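Morning. Coffee machine broken again, so started the prediction first thing and wrote up yesterday's gels while waiting. Chain of 142 residues, entered below exactly as on the submission form.
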Amino acid sequence: MAFRIARHERPFTIDAIVILPEHLHAIWTLPPGDSDFSGRWRRIKAHFTHRLIAVGTPVQRHRNGEYALWQRRFWEHTIRNEQDFERHVDYVHFNPVKHGLVSRACDWPYSSFHVYVRRGLLPADWAGDVNEARMDFGERRG
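Came back before lunch.
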């Protein structure tokens, strides 16, 4: 609901998303001339937090009074081209496998992966039982 409300207030398109137990990844397209990712994240976090509190979920606070639910920052990357877009979409969809939550991307229900499959953009068995070392998402290697 938080995303829906934020998108109504400040439109953007969700190109890919995955929600994991302790973090999420999303690729958005904002309207031309608009680069306010921060304002949108702020609204999503606020709506989500207030809804949790409204239904009685205890949410801890930091010493400064801020809710201890969200990290303060987010990582922003401007997509350079179609190949960069595809690599980031693959990264988003492979994340539950990377974190050991499932062995196949299709087994994680909280992902736009399933939308990509329904639209015929990815096969249902994409990255199924794949060795992570063979998946290259352009990440820096340690």
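Residues 12 and 30 are 5 Å apart (CA to CA). Going to sketch it on the whiteboard this afternoon.
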